[in-house]
Amino acid sequence: MDDVSRSLYRFRRIPHQPLASNPELGSLTKNTLEQWPHLNELKQCYEADWLKDESKYGRYDRAASAPFKSQIYEGPDTDIETEMHLGCARHAKPEDCTDDDVPTTSGRQSSHFGDSPLPAYEPCFDWETERSIIFGQRSSEIHPFQYSSALKISVKVVSLTFQAGLPEPFYGTICLYNKDRREKLSEDFFFHILPDSGLEANSLPQRRGIFSLDAPSPSVCLLVQLEKAATEEGGISASVYSRKEPVSLTEKEKQKLDVWSRIIPYREPFAWAIVPLFEAGTYSSAGVGSPSSPLAPSISGSNSLESAAESFTKSTLDGKLTHNSNGGPITLEISNLNSVKESYTEDSLQDPKRKVHKPVRGLLKLEIEKRQSDMIDGDKVSENGSLDESVDVGNRQADSGGINGKEVSRARLNGAGAFPATSDIHVFDFRTLTRSEPFSQLFHSLYVYPLSVSMSRKRNLFIQVELRKDDLDIRRQQIEALYPRDPDTALQKCSHTQVAIGSKLACFHDEFKLCLPSILTPQHHLLFTFFDVDLQMKQETPKPVPIGYAALSLSTHAQLYSDVSLPIFRELAPNYLQEASKERYLEDGKTLFKLRLRLCSSLYPINERIKDFFVEYDRHMLRTSPPWGSELLEAINSLKNVDSTALLQFLQPVLNMLLHLIGDGGETLQVAAFRAMVNIITRVQQESSDSAERNRFLVSYIDFAFDDFGGRQATVYPGLSTVWGSLARSKAKGYRVGPVYDDVLAMAWFFLELIVKSMALEQSRLCGDNIPPGEDIPPLLLKEAVFRCITQLYDCLLTEVHERCKKGSSLAKRLNSSLAFFCYDLLSIVDPRQVFELVSLYMDKFAGICQPALHDCKLTFLQIICDHDLFVEMPGRDPSDRNYLSSVLIHEIFLTWDHDDLALRAKATRILVILMCKHEFDSRYQKQEDKLYIAQLYFPLIEQILDEMPVFYNLNTVEKREVLIVFLQIARNLDDATLVKAWQQNIPRTRLFFKLLEECLTLFEHRKTADSMLVGCSSRSPDVEALASPKYSDMLSPAINAYLSEASRQEVRPQGTPENGYLWHRISPHLGSPTPPYSLREALAQAQSSRIGVSTRALRESLHPILRQKLELWEENLSSAVSLQVLEMTEKFSTAAGSRSIATDYGKLDCITSIFMSFFSRCQSLAFWKALFPVLDSIFRFHGATLMARENDRFLKQVAFHLLRLAVFRNESIRRRAVLGLQILLRNSLRYFGHMMRLRVMLTITLSELMSDIQVTQMRSDGSLEESGEARRLRQSLEEMADEGGSFGLLKSCGVPQDVLDAVAEDSTENRWSWAAAKGLSENLVQALDAGLEHTLLATQTTADRYATAESFHLLAVAYAPVPDLHIMWLLHLCDAHQEVQSWAEAAQCAVAVAGVIMQALVGRNDAVWTAEHVVALRRICPAVGDSATPEASAAEVEGYGASKLTVDSAVKYLQLGHKLFSQAELHHFCAAILELIIPVYKSRRSFAQLAKCHTSLTTVYEAILEQEASPIPFVDATYYRVGFYGEAFGKLNLQEYVYREAREVRLGDIMEKLSHIYEAKMGSAGQTLHIIPDSRQVKAEELQAGVCYLQITAVDPVMEGEDLGSRRERGFAAAGGGGGQARVLERFLFDTPFTKNGKTQGGLEDQWRRRTVLRTEGSFPALVNRLRVTESESLEFSPVENAIGMIETRTAALRGELEEPRSSEADQLPRLQSLQRILQGSVAVQVNSGVLSVCTAFLSGEPATRLRSQELQQLIAALLEFMAVCKRALRVHFRLIGEEDQDFHTQLVNGFQSLTAELSHYIPAILSEL
Prior knowledge:
Mean pLDDT: 79
Helix content: 40-55%
Number of helices: 59
Largest sheet: 8 strands, antiparallel
Radius of gyration: 58 Å
Distance between the termini: 131 Å
Strand content: 5-15%
Structural class: alpha+beta
């Protein structure tokens, strides 16, 4: 840490005005000061440098802090980062668009991940503001010479012009004048204007007069009086300037006037004007006048003065204002000057009874400017007394010159200021004498105003004024005491008035200013000489003739303000001041001369009691009074009765004298002086106009005026401590001390600060000269007796605090603060260990948890002490201790957190935060070693919190935030060794440390309103705002919270307020201007007048947009900084855990897993996401085996879920990093396990959960659904996860090394990473995504298109097959869907598939009665069951998805469901197979009752099978139809063929109607039509009409196992002959299509061909769905003759089959007869013989017969012969079976057979022989 040494010059000297500028001080010779000690005190008060203690009010140099940067909080559908880049590119040049224009989102910054959270928590930290809220806080006061008016007005005469020209010089005065009271408020400011023939007035360096005003008032104005050379008798009179008609003086007249003005030294009054400065109205305390006055607010800088000029032209001046467009002074043109026709006085100017003065035809231009007041900070005064150029002091500057050289002008002491600008003259303000404030400068002048002289006849009269020391010698030279009009000349011996021409009653308005001697004697007097002068041009200058004299003794008229009337004596004689006879006086001694006196002196007190005190003080100091000093005691006691104004004016010298008496007087004088001093300062405090706790005059006295004058006066603190301590001890002993004790307690701050400054002065005096530059001033070691006295006094005061605080006295709190500041000050002066003794005494007095009031005092005490600028560097009480004060502070703050009082807890936390802010922003402690030292200083606080966590949890939310921000700040700056030490003690303590980190994430979380990707929060939820954490001031620091709460208080809405109730234009006009406030501090200031509601949402919405934006920026930066800091701590913990040097659960690493789950589950900034993934990679490299173990399944699942969640984001930076995170998981799975089965399960599970959270579809404009951007981005991310080609760019953009995917095991060098495995996993996840998407897109069609619905459920079941629970869930959904539409076989398949999943899992882990053979048997029922037991089933033991749910009972339950559903479908062979699988379970359990039920069911099943087989009508379980889709509107169905399985009662027309209904609605919405192709011919898609969709629906027959597909027999009889009761699994189907090769649809038998199409589906029926896609299609063609042969063979086979079918009993004969009759009737009946005859006609006669090959001909004839032979046989059997009732039918059959034989014999003659 840098050595921050105490300044060698603790006190900065601020000089008074140099001695040469005060002629009054020049008269104070050494001899005079020795004779008058009180003058010495006054001289020191007004001359000695002020001493300002630079360290009293603390030292704080704030380091520059980086402004907030816009933090990016992305949502799934936002990409603010890209928008900002694009915005930057649009609004700036490409080369200007740097990374600085967009938020900093890179991971690490220097050694940390991000900025410190503390500046984000306290962005508006202001040390002064925070200190100001401390109870009893001290504030520095203004410099003593700043006790001046708040408003300064500068006046400069620009020019004077007349209609007649300016042929002679003019002179004038300007003063402030109160026209209501008819009183001058200031002395005169003199100016002169040269004639036109001379220099131009504007070219002269005209001086400005600076006038002071307390406050604007319409009665305050400028009185301007002009004078000119006395008019020559018979010459050109002044009336030429007042004529209405234009006047032009000749050159001779001008020359005459010029010559006369040069030779005549006397002047006469010419004109006057009153310039109003302010209009009547309301004026602010800042001195802003009305817009119509010259001093409108625009004077100080506004550019709009049109209104001011316009309104001012209407004033009585008839003047005109002009101004600079850039602001600045106003030029005032005064055109209504009033000429003086007779003698006048200021009192009569506005007398309404007097005649109106004639106007002067002239124009006087004044330049008036409102100036900043002389509020000069002492810091701006340099060591040599000069001021910064930026400070306009406005005081007159003294010319150089010796004291005795009399080179002192009138201008030098005309104001309180000491350092004027050269061209400015500070006009003395007479109200200085009446203000209740201390004199800070020496002024000792007398203003004389001759008023009138009454004479017996008319004369040209003027008066000469001079100051004389005595009247002994009339020839003695006068004293040079009169200030000249020209400020550049020396003091004058005499001066004269204007000439009252030709008047009996001569009136004057002249002002004479005299510099008085420091000591007035009875002989000092003013001498007035009255002259009569002849005003005629002669050879020489007219000689005045004295006509009388008057004298005035100053000692008898030394009053503030007095009017005097004097007689005039005829001649001057020695001792003229003595009484004389009437003969010596004119007109018998009547008082003919009237004058007015005004004494302005800070050296000569008017108050008699102060004057007596000064006299007795001088006697005491000169030892001329009796030893007991009774007169002095009486004078001291009489000070109690001095009026407050006089007391305040001489406050500083009186206090200095009393302190001098306390310091070296006797005990009696000490007590009396102390009591008088207590009374005085109490009166000053009580009569304070600002009601402040520390009167500003008393503060200024201590801070600036109090001094030991280099040791010339005794040190004050020993005597003051002694006398005060004696009084305190007397009170403690029970003695009566009177009310003075309460007064001294109330003013304890004053005496304590006096003691401290006295010590500091002694320290600087003793050590300052002996210390080499750059070294510390050693602390002052108080003498033991003095320290004991101070300790006793301190203890007594502590007792008073303790006792009075219990009674609720406010005085106790003020005294407590005073004691705290006493210790605070002593820390900079005396040995800190002596101060620690006092602090320890305080802590012992207030030990433990006290009453709330006492505890509040204790906190305030610590708050003040620890605010010391060297607090960090304070030592301990023992050499081994680090910092005593910090240890006390930590102990007491933690003790307060356990207090029941909420206000105390909040105060304690606030103290801690403010201290941390002060350290953090202090420019002295910006090095890392400094920050480490501070962090280690406060580290015991963290240990104490971890030891007593219930105390922390007992705090409220705001207090927790305060504590946690300090916790993060400490932890941030700690080194790794200290952190490891905190984690080494035990595992529970380490967990608590991370609990605090989790609390940080929770309490500083920032959630935007649109956050939708967090767990439990959906973008479609209407209550998103309610779920979000509080957004307004709860998160902010309590200081700003309180500030905004006060600013946002509810107010009564005025009439006319808008509906929202917030009059923003009343807050600041800048809000509607082009330059709104962009800084956070300015934005917060705009809330002061807002009217805000109560609720958080209303509060935020009602804020001005700029303020709301700033608060958003604030919260975002705070949340981001906290998250980054916690991430940094987590990485450090991971590194330490990697070396196994800390105490934690290495089996689960729950600290890391919990904090990471907290990271992912919250909304984070882009900067955080960019920093997170390198840390994630590091942690998995260190602890991958542990984190991937089954014990951390919950953690792994959460990580997988949130990585997939981030993979949905639109922002590329986040999405690509999510892809990297998934690859890191893949790498670790391959590295530690060599496969990714468990990871596949994890990702499949989390993908399923994510699909329910994200919005995978979005609405088109036409109302239909389409894939959303989120789903597209998720698919892109899953594909990029396995993209080997893009891997390099991905890793580079994420800022990670290229070997991040190397999966090298610890005991191997083999890289197990496999892009093929990643590809397989990616495809599986994409399949699951597509399945979920398709299912969502079909959400509106679930009731219309049951086929697509079933397929969507099936796709989901297949996609989630790696997770048995999810696989089973979707299979059951599919089962329910089938049952709703009564698709029993498909529903049964789903139930059996569920049972198969469970059975496979059980067989795979050898945990059931089943074996692999049973699985094979189950697969015969449901081929959808997998080939083998998948390892994923056992790998899927994830929380909520465990294999523990896969039990035998579950399998049995679903097998029974399958049995039930197969029974409803009448597929009894499947039922039997299912029962065969259930029976082994009951056998193993020896559940004989269940076995009996199974066997009973089995019997029922077999009986049903027998019944189906015995039925004469073949059993058909379903019908099958082939459907072809042609058209773009079908989407993925286009050009696809499916085989549909329908219920057996569904015919071709039914399915056509059903499918038309489904797809016509879809085609209609797509703007296309739907056509049904009526036949089964081959379709060529290119020949179809565009814009039309086609369906081709064909009935198909299932192909039985072993069936000859090349047989030319017809399918009708062949299928009918199949065994309907067998358990068939069908996957091949066929249909026949007749066609001709001549292009005709139909033809004769000789032209009719037949095409047989065989279809193979991708599965077998019954399946999990109602339709299966056709994967293969084969075609066979049969020629016409083969068709004919096939037709005949089909009929032959049908008859033969009927004849050869065995019959078991007579009861079966009846069904046989019926079947035989039906077949024979279709074969030999006459009406149907055309079928066989037509074959003979087509192929055995004519040309067709010649085309047949011999083989074909022989096959045809053989078929016909066989057919006829079987018919003959059938007739014989029929004859045996019939009864009498069927004889006629048999006869018809025989006749038909004979007829057919006869016809056939024409084509086949051999038939007769064969039959």
